[in-house]
Amino acid sequence: MRYMVGVDVGGTFTDITMIDSVTGNVNNHKLPSTPEDPSIAIMKGIEELLALHNVPNDQVTYLAHGTTVATNAIIERKGAKTALIVTKGFKDLLEIGRQTRPSLYDLFKEKPEPVISGDIRYEVEERLYANGSVRTPINKDQLKEIVTDIKRRGITSIAVCFLFSFKNIMHEKIALEEIGRLYPSAYVSASHEIVPEFREYPRLSTTVMNAYLGPVMKKYMENFRSSVKKSNIPVEPYITQSNGGIISIQESVINPIKTALSGPAAGVVAASYIAELTKYNNLITFDMGGTSADFSLIENGNPKISMEREIEGFPARVPMLDIHTYGAGGGSIAWLDDGGALKVGPESAGAIPGPVAYGRGGTLPTVTDANVVLGRLNPNGILNGKMDLDVNASKKAIKEHICDKTNLSLIEAASGILSVVNANMARGVRLISVEKGYSPSEFALVSFGGGGGLHCGSLAKELNISTVIVPPSPGTFSSMGLLVTDIKSDYVRTELLEPKEQNLNVIIEHFKEMMLEGTTLLEAENIEEDKRNFICTIDIRFKGQNYELSVPIHINELNNRDIDFIVERFHVAHEKTYGYSNKLAKVEFVNYRLTACGNLPKVPLNKGNKGEGEIVISKSKREVYFSEVEEPGYYETDIFQRSELVTGDKINGPAIVDQLDSTILILPNQQAIVDPYQNLIIKVNGEVKPDGKQY
């Protein structure tokens, strides 16, 4: 492996990272996204980066891509026209759902409209008992009529979800065979292949979304693969999954729902890699881009995985990194509500027209415009001067839309915009930490994304987080995550069992079946046997509870009959999550999960040149307004170039560190030091001692 390329597509910019696996050199590139066709910016950016560093296209031996195609298709309702075939009597389950309202106290808040309308939901006579035995055989004549009608209407995608098919796949297999015979060109998703576990509505919803996305993803992936081939890059691209791993293009077309959080996942994977290098094992990730801010929690070096995620109001029952997104990016628009209160987001100016300062036709004030007005962004331009900033246009927009409608001065309005967006993001951090039994003060904050550096110091201060880590290329950090991840595939079985020794053989058999499936996939991906790893968990609950906790296990614990240790681990997890655990209550095993991992080579990051470990003197200064201090006002602020900093360099705030892909703000009374891997470590409430500890 020589040159490894990772591409992350965001709402505003497309980021590309290239690592030379021989020298360890890292090169980054950033260009505006092309929302109408993301592959345009991707291929243009790859070509530009390779040309810039004189790398022949045929020297690229690894290419991975984090995609937003699936997410955007759901948000914008631009998936394929999809039909649904279900057990007779259940076609309205997609609409009924869980019978819960999106907002408990908002009587006017409407549920999202199902992606499949009622007229193309079909019912077929068939029925299984809860144990999987057949009550009513499937009506093949009726099934034939349904498939014929779907074909006649020109519907290109079909979702199949029968009652209790996770226990017996026979009826769904018959449906697949009939569709393949009568309508071979249709894209088909069957629930036993997508999410073979209990809970009817989430299984149905996930299967439907997979079918809805399938043709869209297939078309995009074929175009992307063709573009890569035409550019003489001799590799098959990988695609990032929502669980942080990567999969082949073929697998992403079969299971597009697994890529629904593809983009944000890459940044969390990169942060996990940083945790391994820096020994900061407990991290909160903060990824602020142009459109949104994403938050996730890493405990003991392991990112949190969630099975209870929703996408645009629809359950998606596939393993995803537990990432929460807020409409708080650099392009988030500031506005006044009916009561005159200042709000920021969730609406964004996006890539086009973008913030007013970018001069692309934007007229509404954004977070970026507030940073421009306060002097926090270089008034002479960003992206190393490649993009000009119109400071006067930003001032005009804030004055016209905020100041003229309130009693706020220009500086008060700009400071208010930043205070509101920081408060919004603080709520996002508390959602993934405080509300789940963690104190933010016990974690370091990893800040990345193009906008993260401008807000991380203020955010950490508000949350009582003592340490902020800003990686060497924060604006393109997510694309680096694509180069330090592994192949992953998830499998699940459902069987409600009490934790008794006589049930162990059934549980072991489930894991053996899943391990065989995972081995088959890893063999197809040419992963050597010594590079394969299997992670096992069991979803456990108290009998009568509605939701489970996922408890990690080792297969040897089952072979050795160590079932009491597994149950005890559940009690510890329940105590941490809910604050109590009743050890006398009956416990129930529910789902058995296995993740097959194929370990890929990781390019070691080079340690930078070491300096004297002294305070660095800046070559330039400018006046910057700070409202986060006891005495708000303009402060003479040191300006540094990130490329000129070396290991051991210290910077006293107030200071600004400029680089191609981001701007990092160090508040007054904060200090930063460059670590051996060129991360900028900001101590929020004090100085850094020579041994790295805070005073």
Automatic annotation (TrEMBL):
<dbReference type="Pfam" id="PF01968">
    <property type="entry name" value="Hydantoinase_A"/>
</dbReference>
<feature type="domain" description="Hydantoinase A/oxoprolinase">
    <location>
        <begin position="203"/>
        <end position="490"/>
    </location>
</feature>
<protein>
    <submittedName>
        <fullName>Methylhydantoinase</fullName>
    </submittedName>
</protein>
<dbReference type="GO" id="GO:0005829">
    <property type="term" value="C:cytosol"/>
</dbReference>
<dbReference type="InterPro" id="IPR008040">
    <property type="entry name" value="Hydant_A_N"/>
</dbReference>
<dbReference type="InterPro" id="IPR002821">
    <property type="entry name" value="Hydantoinase_A"/>
</dbReference>
<dbReference type="Pfam" id="PF05378">
    <property type="entry name" value="Hydant_A_N"/>
</dbReference>
<dbReference type="GO" id="GO:0006749">
    <property type="term" value="P:glutathione metabolic process"/>
</dbReference>
<dbReference type="InterPro" id="IPR049517">
    <property type="entry name" value="ACX-like_C"/>
</dbReference>
<feature type="domain" description="Acetophenone carboxylase-like C-terminal">
    <location>
        <begin position="500"/>
        <end position="678"/>
    </location>
</feature>
<feature type="domain" description="Hydantoinase/oxoprolinase N-terminal">
    <location>
        <begin position="5"/>
        <end position="177"/>
    </location>
</feature>
<dbReference type="GO" id="GO:0017168">
    <property type="term" value="F:5-oxoprolinase (ATP-hydrolyzing) activity"/>
</dbReference>
<dbReference type="InterPro" id="IPR045079">
    <property type="entry name" value="Oxoprolinase-like"/>
</dbReference>
<dbReference type="Pfam" id="PF19278">
    <property type="entry name" value="Hydant_A_C"/>
</dbReference>
<dbReference type="InterPro" id="IPR043129">
    <property type="entry name" value="ATPase_NBD"/>
</dbReference>
